[in-house]
Amino acid sequence: MLIFVVITGRLAQDEAAFCEMLGSREVPLMSKKGDIIIGGAFSLHSQISKPINLREFRFAQTMIFAIEEINNRSSLLPNVSVGYKIFDSCASTLPTTRVGMGLINGEERTFEKNCSGQSSVHAVVGTSESSTTIVMLQTLGIFQIPVVNTYIYPASMELRILNRRQYPSFFRTIPSDYFQSRALAKLVKHFGWTWVGAVRSDNDYGNNGMATFIEAASQEGICVEYSEAISRTGSREHVKRVVRVIRRGTASVLVAFLAYDEMDVLLEEALFQNLTELQWVGSESWITSAHLAKARYSGILSGSLGFAIRKAKIPGLEGFLLQVNPKQEPRSNLLREFWETSFGCSFQSDMPGTKLCTGSENLQDTNNAFTDVSELRISNNVYKAVYAVAYALHNMLKCEQNDGKDIHFTVQSGEKVFFDENGDPAAVYDLVNWQRNAAKDIVFTTVGIYDASQPNGKQLSMNGKNITWRPLSVCSQNCPPGFRKATIKGKPICCFSCLPCAAGEISNTKCSQCPLEYWSNVNHSKCVPKVIEFLSYKETMGAILAAFSLCGASLTLIILCIFLWFRHTPLVKASNSELSFLLLFSLTLCFLCSLTFIGRPTEWSCMLRHTAFGIAFALCISCILAKTITVVMAFKAKRPAKTIPQCSAPLQRTSVLGCTLIQVLICVIWLTFAPPFPHKNTVYANEKIILECDLGSPIAFWVVLGYIGLLASLCFVLAFLSRKLPDNFNEAKFITFSMLIFSAVWLTFIPAYVSSPGKFTVAVEIFAILASSFGLLFCIFAPKCYILLLKPERNTKNHMMGRKQTKGHVWD
């Protein structure tokens, strides 16, 4: 079954008539006999440009060069000669159909069955248009003749999703545009462009390529401001409207997924409307176009970036091309036409105004698309395609593969070639940048590589060369540190406003809370360790409290020394000297225990501070309680002689020791089951860590404090009842007043302690300790020191008894 494509209308007739000028489409324009024949189909002519296409002619000669190179190699297809038949597809479907028929009808079956009954192998290299490729596949696919495509323009969606079961013989050495579209998105992301415009060809190549790009760009966080389509056959008014849209847009990067012809139309209008200051990002169809680089559009396109088919150097190709001459094949109309086009001459002497071609002209004197080997991209694909066919045939001859198509090889340039399950090669592109050389001419500089086979994040790599590009294309400027992005209703995600982050949060793109022991810096750009705070000796408050503590302890010791000096006087004896000395000692401990509350909390200091405080104050109040009881019992006794045993020193010591041991027992139980421990408090101040001592058991703390309060209450009651005892020196009055101050201080302490934040909790507790200690010291001992030091005449028994001696009083 054969498939014919019939084209009706004037265009098909004109096209067919022009292509017939060079002979029948079923007859190859260039051929060579061989054991194996490889067909070639190139668009040497087209309905748009009637002169020979020198670029396509270079592709055809590259195919011939590769075949000759293979024939000269002994390691590849030994003892087998490779021939070729090259046809002109005329860049159209009808001639391509006839070319396919010519390949089938002219098949020479010199490659006989060799391996397990397999038939001869034929392959076709070339075809550069989507439509012609599909026609070639439909024609040759019936006979399972492989078609190796080297360049598809424009890349049809139908070719991108070819069914391998329907076309199992289709291969290509150019990557699918699916990978190119995704590569363009990676490129835009790499340069930080998040706000771009897009323009495309209004055909399968542009529409499907742009759809893939927009999808990939969205995944990369890139927004497309507008997407416009252009057709080379569309009206100029439409092109004008597209350029106006581009001018009004705020994106400074334009992704142009355009075929060469549409690019030429767009640039013409862009030049007319003075469309400048754009960063162009292009597809491979135009990014290495020498015509655009040399034309008047170069000023607009300077700095353009885009992906191109990898450039390669083919050793020996340039010399081979320069040797092409019509004298090689005098009957070849194609070679004669090539020569006339290259040198602007004619082999016909009857052409007035045209110089006569001699055939002796030198191609080295020309600079055209045929002799230019500086950008061997498609030519390299043709070269690899011929070698792919040769290696497949070589494998079949050696019976190493069932079908010869699973091939891996390395060409002389060092490039590795293989095909995946879809018949596609590895998607590797050169990243090309349009730069100006010293002569101000545009040169295509390779600045990087995109390899789709690499892991994500490593696919795009730069080679370190300087790049000419415009650095900014965003809808909204990045938020400064300390701010987060907030989407604007009705706008793309790339357009946003900036809102400040809350305290303790940092931002790159969004606000995030710092870890528990960290806080945001002033700019909210990073998390820094929180300031650790505790009541320290180095700070003013800590130093002042420590100074008062030491002063209180020193003053207490001074009073102790005074009492020791006057210990034999009536006043000291009347004050119960042993209890007074013990009371002064306990007050010294009370002053000093406040020092344990200052400094960095540790495990030992936390256990010491509260227990030392509780025991010291219990001892202090116990001494005062014993003194109060002694005074009351001494003055209330009817028989003084009987009071002596009741108020003896052992009884006083026992009462003090017993009351103190109860507090010691409470503290031991506290430390055994739930001891205080260092704790990092982050509740009171978010930006700080308060180092404090956790009570372990709050109940135990309040029991300790409550026991001290109980002892103080007993002292107050007894002292209050004894305040009117007959004595010029009635110590019960001073004890009553001291207990009032003590109780007032600690009753005030409770709400202040509960409500004070951070280190001020510790400061309140120290203040209560010092205030109550100073209150006891001054209320009880200041009047005595006054008499001892300033009024020694009052330090007599008669004076203290109101001038009447009371018998039986026990003073000591």
UniProtKB/TrEMBL annotation:
<feature type="transmembrane region" description="Helical">
    <location>
        <begin position="578"/>
        <end position="599"/>
    </location>
</feature>
<dbReference type="Pfam" id="PF01094">
    <property type="entry name" value="ANF_receptor"/>
</dbReference>
<keyword id="KW-0325">Glycoprotein</keyword>
<dbReference type="GO" id="GO:0005886">
    <property type="term" value="C:plasma membrane"/>
</dbReference>
<dbReference type="Pfam" id="PF00003">
    <property type="entry name" value="7tm_3"/>
</dbReference>
<dbReference type="InterPro" id="IPR038550">
    <property type="entry name" value="GPCR_3_9-Cys_sf"/>
</dbReference>
<dbReference type="InterPro" id="IPR028082">
    <property type="entry name" value="Peripla_BP_I"/>
</dbReference>
<dbReference type="InterPro" id="IPR001828">
    <property type="entry name" value="ANF_lig-bd_rcpt"/>
</dbReference>
<keyword id="KW-1133">Transmembrane helix</keyword>
<keyword id="KW-0807">Transducer</keyword>
<feature type="transmembrane region" description="Helical">
    <location>
        <begin position="734"/>
        <end position="754"/>
    </location>
</feature>
<keyword id="KW-0472">Membrane</keyword>
<dbReference type="InterPro" id="IPR004073">
    <property type="entry name" value="GPCR_3_vmron_rcpt_2"/>
</dbReference>
<keyword id="KW-0297">G-protein coupled receptor</keyword>
<keyword id="KW-0675">Receptor</keyword>
<feature type="transmembrane region" description="Helical">
    <location>
        <begin position="541"/>
        <end position="566"/>
    </location>
</feature>
<dbReference type="InterPro" id="IPR000068">
    <property type="entry name" value="GPCR_3_Ca_sens_rcpt-rel"/>
</dbReference>
<keyword id="KW-0812">Transmembrane</keyword>
<feature type="domain" description="G-protein coupled receptors family 3 profile">
    <location>
        <begin position="541"/>
        <end position="804"/>
    </location>
</feature>
<dbReference type="InterPro" id="IPR017978">
    <property type="entry name" value="GPCR_3_C"/>
</dbReference>
<dbReference type="GO" id="GO:0004930">
    <property type="term" value="F:G protein-coupled receptor activity"/>
</dbReference>
<dbReference type="InterPro" id="IPR011500">
    <property type="entry name" value="GPCR_3_9-Cys_dom"/>
</dbReference>
<protein>
    <submittedName>
        <fullName>Olfactory receptor C family, h1</fullName>
    </submittedName>
</protein>
<dbReference type="InterPro" id="IPR000337">
    <property type="entry name" value="GPCR_3"/>
</dbReference>
<feature type="transmembrane region" description="Helical">
    <location>
        <begin position="656"/>
        <end position="673"/>
    </location>
</feature>
<feature type="transmembrane region" description="Helical">
    <location>
        <begin position="766"/>
        <end position="790"/>
    </location>
</feature>
<dbReference type="InterPro" id="IPR017979">
    <property type="entry name" value="GPCR_3_CS"/>
</dbReference>
<keyword id="KW-0732">Signal</keyword>
<feature type="transmembrane region" description="Helical">
    <location>
        <begin position="699"/>
        <end position="722"/>
    </location>
</feature>
<comment type="similarity">
    <text>Belongs to the G-protein coupled receptor 3 family.</text>
</comment>
<feature type="transmembrane region" description="Helical">
    <location>
        <begin position="611"/>
        <end position="635"/>
    </location>
</feature>
<dbReference type="Pfam" id="PF07562">
    <property type="entry name" value="NCD3G"/>
</dbReference>
<keyword id="KW-1003">Cell membrane</keyword>
